[in-house]
């Protein structure tokens, strides 16, 4: 019995010392394991947070810009605008798409040179400008934000967004013989789903 007593005291003292040391560093004697969280959000203090796994890199299906241009040009008609005439209406199929070239890269794969959409353009002959005051009314809408620029001789106007409206009167002095309509937008591999525009050029007699 005399031999066991010092051993019991020593174990008790050791346990007390461990508890005191744990309390000194603000830890419980028996600490629960941290929870593992995977994600990009804020990390709780009692969690071990790991970044999300890398998504596999894959190339998008490349756009055949030349084939699309040939197809679109083949379907264009011989539309024109008469000053004081009927409203001209156009949709996406009436415009010629514009492309930019970019280089995509994926680790472990060779670079891919591809084309992406960056705008639309349309040129229309205009008849009837003899120096009178002209009234330009242009309205439209698109599936995404774009910048619209319209010019005809000395007339030029711009609007931005996914809905467009331009109304202006101007004397162009006979210079409005060809209307240029241009849309620009950030590069995208996916063609906007719709684009509509109407143009009226009237006159003050």
SSE diagram, text form:
Elements: H1 4-24, E1 35-38, E2 47-50, H2 65-75, E3 81-82, E4 88-91, E5 96-104, E6 112-127, E7 133-152, E8 155-171, E9 178-188, E10 195-204
Parallel strand pairs: 1-2, 3-6
Antiparallel strand pairs: 4-10, 5-6, 6-9, 7-8, 7-9, 7-10
What do you see in this structure?
With 205 residues, the protein is α+β, with helices and mostly antiparallel strands. The chain has 2 domains: 47 residues, no CATH class; 140 residues, Jelly Rolls (Sandwich). 16% of the residues lie in helices and 47% in strands. It is built from 2 helices and 10 strands; from the N terminus they run H-E-E-H-E-E-E-E-E-E-E-E. Strands 3, 4, 5, 6, 7, 8, 9 and 10 form an 8-stranded mixed beta sheet that branches. A two-stranded parallel sheet has the order 1-2. The termini are far apart. The N terminus is likely disordered.
State the main characteristics.
2 domains; signal; Jelly Rolls; two-stranded parallel sheet; 205 residues; alpha+beta; eight-stranded mixed beta sheet; Secreted protein; disordered N terminus
Please outline what is shown here:
Keywords: Signal. It comes from Pseudoalteromonas fenneropenaei. The chain contains 2 helices and 10 strands; from the N terminus they run H-E-E-H-E-E-E-E-E-E-E-E.
